[in-house]
Amino acid sequence: ELLHDTSERKKVIELILATHSSTQERLPFYEKLYAQIFAITGKPKTILDLGCGINPFSFSFMKLKACNYYAYYINKEEIDTINHYFNLLHTENYSFIGKAKVADITKADFPLVDLCLLLKMTDVIDKGKGHKKTEELLERIPAKYVIVSFATKTMSGKEMTAPRRSWMEWLCKRLDYSYTIVEFENELFYVIRK
Question: In the chain, is it the N or the C terminus that has fewer CB atoms within a 10 Å radius of its CB?
Answer without folding.
Answer: N
